[in-house]
Each structure stands twice: as C-alpha cells, then as structure tokens.
Amino acid sequence: EAKAKIYGGPYLIFAAGFFCEWIKNKDQKEILNFSAQDILQALSFPEVKKSSAFLIEEAIEKLGVFSGKMI
C-alpha cells in the first residue's frame, strides 16, 4: 500500500494519487524508471499545471537518493 502526504493544489494531489496507484505491483526497477511523462500521458493536465507532475518525479528521485533503497 502506498500513501502520500501532500500539501498543494488539486493537480499536485491528483498526481500524487496517480503515483500511489501506479506503484502497486511494480518492482524497484520500474519505480526508479518512473517519470513525470507517465503522469502526463495518463492524465490531462493543462499546460500551466504540468509542473505538478515534475514535482512528483523529483520527490520520487529524492526518496531513492536519501533512503538508499526504494519502497
């Protein structure tokens, strides 16, 4: 089970929710290859809100670096 604690607008919350669902049944390699493009291809974000997808991607990258392992 994946959960996210998000503070931000609805598109950021939506992107985090998408990632939490996407991560189910994925292995570490698939998770590490996740990108904002996965969100943008699946969801219809307005151009001005696409940065929300990149914030999720950045958070995932930092999790991998700081924890030394993934989920």
Give the arrangement of secondary structure elements.
Elements: H1 10-22, H2 28-32, H3 36-42, H4 51-67
Helix pairs in contact: 1-4, 3-4
Mean pLDDT: 85
Quaternary structure annotation: single chain
- Element-level helix/strand string: HHHH
What does the main sheet amount to?
Answer: none
Strand content: under 5%
Number of helices, counting only DSSP H or I runs of 4 residues or more:
4
User: Roughly how many Å apart are the termini?
Assistant: 10 Å
Low-confidence stretches: none
Helical coverage, percent range: 55-70%
Number of strands: 0
Global geometry: globular
Rg on CA atoms, Å: 12 Å
Report the structural category.
mainly alpha
Describe this structure in words.
- The chain is mostly helical and 71 residues long.
- 59% of the residues lie in helices and 0% in strands.
- The chain has helices spanning 10-22, 28-32, 36-42, 51-67.
- Helix 1 (10-22) packs across helix 4 (51-67).
- The longest helix has 17 residues, at 51-67.
- The N and C termini lie close together (10 Å).
